[in-house]
Amino acid sequence: MLLAIAGGETRAQWRITVPMLVPVDGGGSAICFNGGILWIVGNQQLFRSVDSGITWSVAGAFPGFLVDVDFIDSLHGVIATQSDTYLTSDGGVTHKSLGFVSNSACFGQDTLTIGAAQVFGTNTGFLSVTSDGGNTWQTNSRGLPLCVRRLTNGGLMFFSDVKPNGFLTWTLDKGATWAGGGTGIDWDSYSFAQDSCDHNRIYLSHEDVGAVVAKTYTDKFSKIFLTTDMGNTWQTIVSNPEPFFSGSIAAGRQAIYCPTVASGIYRSLDRGMTWSSIGGPNIAFDTRLIAAINDNIIIALDTEGNIWRTDNSGGDSVLLQPGLGTLQLSTHSLFTTTSLTCGDSDVEPITMQGFGCIPLFVARTAFVGADSASYHINYLGSDSISVVFAPQGTGQYQCNLVLTLGDGTTDTIALGGTTTGGNFPLTMATADQKTDTIGATVSVPLQFNGLMGTENIDVVMHYTGADLVYDSSVDLLGGKVDVPGEQWQGRSMLHLANAQSGVIVGYARFNVFSDSLTKPVVTFDSVHVQAAGCKYQLPAPVSSTITPVQGCGTQLISELMRTGHIPNLSFSPNPTMGEVIIFSSSDLGNTTIEIYDMLGTKRSQTELTLTANTPAQLILPQADGMYTIRVRSAAGVFSSRVIVRR
User: What's domain 424-547's architecture?
Assistant: First the structure.
């Protein structure tokens, strides 16, 4: 079952994406975000979203009062209820009962397989650990544990109560030994979050709402606590008469979010030292119902069960600062082996791992290439990107996804993929061209064969060779068909309206020079027939070779016409002790170099290839004297005198 996007209700740049998804009654319910996927438990169901909370589907059903959820990847999760704890290895479709009552549960840092999963759960007076899927448990008496979470430094931390105080302790060896445990925080605190940069810095939300016993052992103030030494000492940052905070908390890279029961979402941009409301939903107490996709995209579930989302931190966007570390991508290519039937689509992820304090982040994305319309981003978060390949026809597709990072550098992902299908094969045709005039305009034709009627077609034209100066592409009436914003050196996208089969639909026009000896090539590829769907089997690329005028002196005249100057040859050093370096300003190609002495006698002849701005060495006769060097090429004959003095 897929739950569609709801209407446009907003509050300070927040909006409801799905109404009444999970009714929240009397506390409970939790949200988890990992690997680009959001999970929510509540009302005896597990919900899943792969598009940052815009749409949701029911992933599974679980009996009991659901209080916590943790997924370590897209399949393996643990769900805590007040009557049992459950493991799933298929995204919630099926689950296994662990027979263990938990207030909170999470996976260990070093596990992915369900058979060896280290699941940490809490119940009255114990923290329990299983490493064999729940067959056996080891317990540690740690007061009344309320919340257990993985730490960024590979350990495990949990909050527990010993009336009238609470304390936060942590372990790096799966519960064998413990540290922390300093007092200074109140009993009945519900959730905590670790700072993204400093793992010693922990933020704790104390709701102090609900049971009569809670009111007996606390001062009836709802608070945010901060520790900078992993729970050994604490300071109170915010204190308001209860009811105020809901008990949830979430940390981005630069912002921390703490929901309230009646004043929206509180946010801190200075590592928890000051807090203010950014509006948004009110969230029930004793819940864990807020997730930070990144510093600006926040997902929350209100007291009526509505899913709320903001894309700009509640209308006051967080300016993402460049990282002090690095960002490592899992791959630099996607869809390389993907082959789809026309009309289908595919999704592939890129996982990202940041290193260092405040790692680099992706600030902007752009698809660059002829087939960019066939790709789009399904999800962009702090730890992953999901790219959708949705081809608009049949054939082979190529494109680059360019990621601009927070420090201005870029990283490129090569995208591929092919599609098959289509009932009608489509081909293209062009023709080689030749000119006998330097600087003349040549028109390269394009024709489609196999069209079943009049069609509007987009095609990409590429050209190579230094001798081509692109003018424009035109239809049969002379109207320009270059697509604005899709033209740069060596490439232009063309839009050909009302194309018909078997007739020329347009021309690519070039001014052709003869500065080099390479024949230019014009290629047409990446065809998209608009509104045709899967009607056609898209054509293979076709190319036209252009032959410029050739002959003695043509290079010299061509460069003079195009640039206003003639090729220049220099010989150095002069005088020399026996060898010179020849430097040409233009491509002369294969040349014959003759050396004459002062009496006009040819002393040697050498074949050399001279290319623009590339030095070539020439050995002169051993005897001292003045020599004439004569360079013969297709561009003309060049002469210079050089003195040998040993």
Answer: Sandwich (2.60)
Class level of CATH domain 554-644: mainly beta
Print burial letters for 182-210: b (CB count within 10 Å at least 16), e (below 16): beebbbbbbbbbbbbbebebbbbbbbbbb
pLDDT tens readout for residues 322-380: 656 788 899 999 999 999 887 789 999 998 887 766 678 888 899 988 788 889 998 88
554-644 and 142-299 share a CATH fold: no
Best CATH choice for the domain 142-299 from the list 2.130.10.10, 3.40.630.40, 1.10.10.10, 2.60.34.30: 2.130.10.10
CA distances from 507 to 427, 429, 431, 524 (A): 17, 12, 11, 11
pLDDT in tens, 442-460: 999 999 999 999 999 999 9
Tell me which H or E stretch contains 488: strand 482-488
Global confidence as pTM = 0.54
User: 579 CB contacts (<8 Å, ≥6 apart)?
Assistant: 617, 618, 619, 620
State which fold the 329-420 domain adopts: Immunoglobulin-like (2.60.40)
Residues ≥6 apart with Cβ < 8 Å to 94: 60, 88
For residues 203 and 192, the answer to whether their CB atoms sit within 8 Å is yes
Which of these, 274, 273, 323, lies nearest to 294 by C-alpha position? Answer: 323
Q: Do 606 and 613 contact (CB within 8 A), yes or no?
A: no
pLDDT of 3 strictly over 50 = no
> What's the burial of 585, exposed, middle or buried (CB within 10 Å: 0-12/13-18/19+)?
middle
Task: For residue 561, name the pLDDT band (cuts at 50, 70, 90).
Answer: low
Name the strand (E) or helix (H) holding 160. strand 156-162
CA distance 409 to 402: 10
Helix (H) or strand (E) holding 212: helix 212-217
Q: What is the pLDDT of residues 500-529, one digit of tens each?
A: 999 999 999 999 888 776 789 999 998 888
Amino acid at the residue 619: I
For the segment 564-590, what is each residue's pLDDT rounded down to a tens digit?
666 778 898 999 998 999 988 877 788
Would you kindly state where each structural domain of the chain is located, as residue ranges? 142-299, 329-420, 424-547, 554-644
